[in-house]
Amino acid sequence: MQNPLIEVNDLRCSYGSFEAVRGVDFEVNEGELFALLGTNGAGKTTTMETIEGHRRPSSGVVRVLGLDPFRQRKQLRSQTGIMLQESGFAGDLTVAETVSLWQAMSSRRSDTGAALERLDLAHRRDVRVKQLSGGERRRLDLVLATLGRPRVLFLDEPTTGLDPESRKTAWEFIRELLAEGVTMLLTTHYLDEAESLAHRLAIMHEGRIAVSGSLVDVLSQERAQISFDLPSGASELDLPEFTGELDADQLARGHVHVQTSSLESDLRAVVQWQSAHQLPLLRFRAQHASLNDVFHGVVDSHRGQVLPFPGVPAVGGNGSVR
Ligand SMILES: Nc1ncnc2c1ncn2[C@@H]1O[C@H](COP(=O)(O)OP(=O)(O)OP(=O)(O)O)[C@@H](O)[C@H]1O
């Protein structure tokens, strides 16, 4: 039985006459990491800030742990951790002083030394915050947001500015929190981050969710691809029957490229054809769509269109097609 700790129903948020969030629905179940992705200005931060209780929705219902985050922020504070895009540290305090201050303000107890160690900041304990690098500050943000293990954690672009090694460390830390049962809502521009960490995700565009569901649900929105060089001596007439679409331009240049909704059956056709004719398959590739493909598909299919978009099926928070 799934237990939604974050519920968002028909959320709308406006800045004056501009509606930045235009009817967003999703749920985040207990122990799950849900990633909110999207184009610049899609409304991710506005959505996140509203769920965190920093902003009153124009309409719709938001619940975190069954509470209204705007009206019942105080009750929620002890159970939630928030990592904002911009940290509000006092630059003159050292890392250790900052952590102690945060700890003093929190009702949750935690092993701060271990957290600093875990995020590779222990050796920077006595350094003033203003002297930290951007990546070190981001890791300090993560330490502070997770002090005392909140039940629900909001991570707004947590690894922006981190080098690849630090990102890896941050991901491992986030996975450890997941293993401990912390429920998380993450916004990120790094698609690989969502692919690696998220149980479910949504891609926002112009204030709406264009696609959402599990990674498998979302990836199935775009067709898979098979490609290889047309073997010398073989003509296009010799090719097997594909259920997918063969790219005529690439074929004219001697390359077979098929976009297919049925990767397995088209792959079987290629293998049978290749073994029957004993042909070499040079530069052969077969792959499902990536999150990158889906993301670009969302943007392309919405380009120049007036909302709502007929091209892309809108999928509800649980992966159901609306
Ligand atoms: N304080 C504000 N006043 C007016 N418009 C705003 C304000 N904050 C955000 N907006 C607008 O609302 C829309 C959504 O912004 P938001 O920051 O939520 O998007 P985002 O998905 O987080 O974008 P990004 O990925 O670029 O951070 C944008 O068009 C933005 O310009």
From TrEMBL:
Q: Which GO terms describe its cellular component?
A: plasma membrane
Does this UniProt record's set of keywords contain Nucleotide-binding?
Answer: yes
Q: Does the keyword ATP-binding apply?
A: yes
Primary place of residence?
membrane
Describe its membrane topology. Peripheral membrane protein
Q: Which InterPro entries match?
A: AAA+_ATPase (IPR003593), ABC_transporter-like_ATP-bd (IPR003439), ABC_transporter-like_CS (IPR017871), ABC_transporter_ATP-binding (IPR050763), P-loop_NTPase (IPR027417)
Sorted keywords for this record are: Antibiotic resistance, ATP-binding, Nucleotide-binding, Transport
Recorded hits in Pfam families, A to Z, give: ABC_tran
Q: Where in the cell is it found?
A: Cell membrane
Q: Which GO terms describe its biological process?
A: response to antibiotic
**Domain ABC transporter, first and last residues per copy:** 6-231
**Tree of life domain:** Bacteria
- GO molecular-function terms, A-Z: ATP binding; ATP hydrolysis activity
| Transmembrane portions of the chain | none
The protein's name in its UniProt record: ABC-2 type transport system ATP-binding protein
Q: What is the native source organism of this protein? A: Amycolatopsis marina
Write the lineage as a comma-separated list: Bacteria, Bacillati, Actinomycetota, Actinomycetes, Pseudonocardiales
